[in-house]
Specification:
Blueprint lengths: L10 E3 L3 E2 L6 E2 L2 H4 L3 E2 L9 H8 L13 E3 L8 E2 L3 E3 L5 E3 H5 L3 E4 L4 E4 L4 E3 L6 E3 L16 E2 L5 E2 L7 E4 L4 E4 H4 L3 E6 L2 E5 L13
Antiparallel strand pairs: 1-5, 2-3, 4-6, 7-8, 9-10, 11-12, 13-14, 15-16, 17-18
Length: about 210
């Protein structure tokens, strides 16, 4: 045939990515921009994963030695590396510069995820703060089951045995840090149980 049929399928390589800033295609996003990484690429040898996720997007079976997508498909765009979010102009916005070192994912207005599982989003979602050690609420349920004070700080509704809630440090603090030999207390000034042969005095102010 001299002319290509209008409905003929033309294929493009899958391992080619669009640079959102330049509008050109690249096979290495990181080489184009140090803030970019290539989108997730399927291992062509993992046929179970390949067929489950991609086969429905193909108009013809691909050659596994040279994976190709229909020309009508849009090339995958480069994505920002972890800790950055992409702006409308294609540039990558550094979450840590705006919301602090612990922020791993964000929008331009809020931090949306913290890097460490020992951190949680602040109530205003402008930073990552430490989860509350010594709180009866387990880490996996913080901050969803915590309370807040008037200043927007996370508050533990009940500290573990051997801890008390300290409003100044906004933390659960071990009783023994407030009173020597104290193992259970209501506040830093009231001990209700002591270790070993020690006992609270009449006013429960010391062991």
């Amino acid at each position: 045939m001299d002319n290509e049929s209008e409905d003929a399928v033309i294929y493009i390589p899958t391992h080619i990515f669009l640079n959102p800033i330049t509008g050109y295609c690249t096979d290495n996003c990181t080489a184009d921009n140090s803030d970019y990484v290539n989108p997730f690429e399927y291992n062509v040898n993992d046929w179970n994963t390949f067929f489950n996720h991609l086969l429905s997007n193909f108009e013809a079976l691909p050659n596994p030695d040279h994976l190709m997508l229909p020309r009508t498909s849009t090339p995958s765009s480069c994505v920002c590396k972890q800790g950055f979010t992409m702006l409308v102009d294609g540039t990558c916005f550094d979450c840590s510069l705006e919301f602090g070192h612990g922020c791993s994912e964000c929008t331009t207005e809020d931090c949306t995820e913290c890097a460490s599982n020992t951190n949680m989003l602040s109530f205003d979602e402008q930073s990552c703060v430490d989860k509350i050690v010594g709180c009866a609420i387990q880490f996996e349920f913080q901050p969803s089951q915590l309370l807040t004070d008037y200043d927007g700080n996370w508050v533990c509704p009940k500290c573990k045995d051997g801890y008390f809630w300290d409003k100044r440090s906004i933390r659960c603090v071990p009783c023994e840090h407030a009173m020597h030999h104290c193992t259970e207390c209501f506040t830093e000034e009231r001990c209700i149980d002591c270790e070993g042969h020690w006992f609270p005095n009449y006013d429960q102010t010391e062991c």
